[in-house]
Amino acid sequence: MKKTLCITSMLSIITLGYTLSAVADSTSLGVGVGWTDSPYKSYSSNLYPIPHIDYDNGSFFIDDLSAGVYIYNTDNQSISIGGRYLANEFKPHDSDNHQLKKLDKRYSTLLAEIEYNINTNWGSFSSNVGADVLNESNSFLVNADYSLPIVEGDLILVPTIGINWANSNHNNYYYGISHKESSRSKLRYYNAESSFTPYAELGAQYKLTNHFATYGCIHIDKLTGDAADSPMVDNSAVTSIYMGVSYNF
Questions:
Q1: Is the pTM here over 0.70, yes or no?
Q2: Lower Cβ count inside 10 Å, N or C end of the chain?
Q3: Mean pLDDT score, 30-47
């Protein structure tokens, strides 16, 4: 069953396999708040509200920032296709660095995805492939992760480790510097190639009553390769925190 509870950082693919919702009620609504720092130089950290929507009828699902349909779904395995909002963006005015202020804006986009999940007695594995369908970044992204839910009474903990791969189009859009930008900003021209981003995460949910629960998550991405080496970047370890309250039906 595909489920996502933690809203990950703007760098992440936001597809986590067997998370809290997989062992909790299948339908819930809530609201949370998220905070993420940025890899970009002198860039403002973001604090933002995030609605929580978790609906799954076995054929169709809405999972916070993603939605889709199952093409195969059993008790412990699923294959789904759908769409997901990719929150990566760069706003020059959000940076206090005078050179980054002269760069072009980079926009968020929508991914079309196919995902496979399998749940076992030893944890859960999830893998997905996504592609930009709005022609903003021409991103092609691949993700794989492993998680192991721990249930102790009303408390659920879900540690997760994973890795993302982003193609050169994605990295060059969000971390590259064109010749025109280089001329304006005096930053060196930079053409970014593909790279991997390993990450670690800890999600938690605590059941307050039969219907209400609190939840939270901390997620850390580690940029590597051309993403980490970009002249735009001075922070290769990016942390995101998310917490909120949900009502389970």
A1: yes
A2: C
A3: 92
